[in-house]
User: Fold this.
Amino acid sequence: MTDTAPLPPHDSAAEQVVIAAAIADPARTLEILRELDDEAFYITAHRDLFRAIRAAYERDRVADMVAVGAAIGRLPRLESGQTTETLIAYAMKLALEEKLGTLFAAGPHLKRLRDMAQARNLARIAQGLVNRAYEYEQTGAELVASGLGQLLALRRQGGIARGAVPARTHLSGFSDWLQEMRYSEAEIRGFHWGLPTIDNVLGGHAEDDLVLLKAGTSYGKTTLLRQGVLTTARHLKNRGEEKAVAVYLLEGGINRWYQGAVSFLGNVEKRYVRRGGKR
Assistant:
């Protein structure tokens, strides 16, 4: 009678879902590449496919079936031992199932795959320590020091970016942005304050800028923000951009905001708006 060693923790179905989403859903590809590396996949065919997806994205900034198929052909070695044609056919099957909606969403599986990969690495480290302990080629103190070093390294891996994407991946998009800026006739881009002096100095704000306004009560913070929001909304409309400016009010209420907006858009003093028809 022989005992069969248990398989390391893994979830082949979750791996299939993530691989399929990375190929079939361009909106998820970069997220998956950032969150995972090839060690997150236990099945060797999935590791080969993940390497091909990363190679395709780094080369062409896209990881659709055509790009991934070409990347599979460029891999120097397939760990799974499959032929290029077999692996491409398997990738096509997964991508088709994703398109048909027969696979579940990939998002919930990312952390699960990371955790399982870390558990497999922990089991590998532990088994290595056990083997070396039986061989007794190192003292107990040396084994403990070696094990602690490996465990600390494994802990650090869990707290850093897993699937780092090289900076060159984004250079093409940055180049496109530079060309757009070069030939754009707009003097101010992004968020406008509607005040020429401020806008000329700042040059507008990007979508991911964080701006803090600090002043005492009744210094005009809300009025300035309202003017900036309305000016930017008008600017976007004139340029034909289908974007919206979101405003989150934590004080004053929506009616007070609307009063200020009517005052600004209609060029009417706020005191007249508050009085209604009475002057």
Q: What stands out?
A: The chain is about 60% helix and 0% strand. Residues 56 and 169 are 11 Å apart (CA to CA). The longest helix spans residues 107-135. The chain has a mean pLDDT of 78.
